[in-house]
């Protein structure tokens, strides 16, 4: 598919440029041909009227001769600026008289002329102007034009090939990511569906049993449905993020939000034997989406709780200056191996897939966190060392001012 797309891109460029060049050179050719014809007509009329070569024209470049004939069509005078025999001169005169036209082209084996015949008081004057020089000018013009067109096609092909490779590369990467994403999503959805199906089969095989006696199987079904619902919600979030729709933003107290998130997770940490600390100043106002920031912090804290053993510590911290606010979540957990650091924000990427499934994760949490940070035009970085812990640091641009925030103190 991508090979065909590349070929189509290159061919489109070559055909387009070739067409444009042909139009340009054809226009130049017609313009020059028209100009030379116009110039030849001026010279013919000038010589015919003045019966000599005008001083405005270079006698070395203008090759001509003229014949004066009386009413009996006999030659009564002539002037030559070209080496031509009397026999050829008389032959050209006879041909013009036979054709009975006032202007045109005439030639023999040795000469090519444009002629003009106009009446005079003594009869007529016939001026012959050599136009072989014009033809000599046309030929190199056509040859040069062909060479330029061919050279341009080669250059366009080379440039188009380079640009096509660069243009298609991100499309190819995006396509491959989408293919992997769809395959992973299908796999993640297939697992809970298989569990639900198998548990339903057990329940239906024991249709005479009470609901209470089959609670184990029904709980399994409920857990897998909850897991599937969360997975679908995460997929919908990522789909909306990819659509690049502008999310609503407003001013809110980021400090208060951190206290709320801290209170939501403190009991969970105590239950697991973890120490959760909060480090923030009050009245830090931020312009953004409060729900999204809360979701971002929840994802990072949830990850820290999952992968930090009993007795460990987790710190949620907020700092701010004139232009940025900086959020960080640090833990003393298992850490992330170096080879996974650059991939942890990829969708469905998990450092330990079996462990993640045991925790109910599908590998979308950090991908969603990255999307939220991107939506706020910020950056997210991670520093981690195996068996020592991990720290996520988020830097978000600050837009707040006291006059913009009605209830700031």
Automatic annotation (TrEMBL):
Superkingdom field: Bacteria
Keywords on record: Kinase, Membrane, Phosphoprotein, Transferase, Transmembrane, Transmembrane helix, Two-component regulatory system
Alphabetized Pfam families for the sequence: HATPase_c, HisKA
Main location: membrane
One GO MF term: phosphorelay sensor kinase activity
Bilayer-spanning residue ranges: 9-30, 141-164
Histidine kinase domain ranges (all copies): 184-400
Subcellular location(s) of the protein: Membrane
GO cellular component: membrane
UniProt EC number: 2.7.13.3
Catalytic activity: ATP + protein L-histidine = ADP + protein N-phospho-L-histidine
Listed PANTHER family: HISTIDINE KINASE 1 (PTHR43711:SF1), TWO-COMPONENT HISTIDINE KINASE (PTHR43711)
Name the record gives this protein: histidine kinase
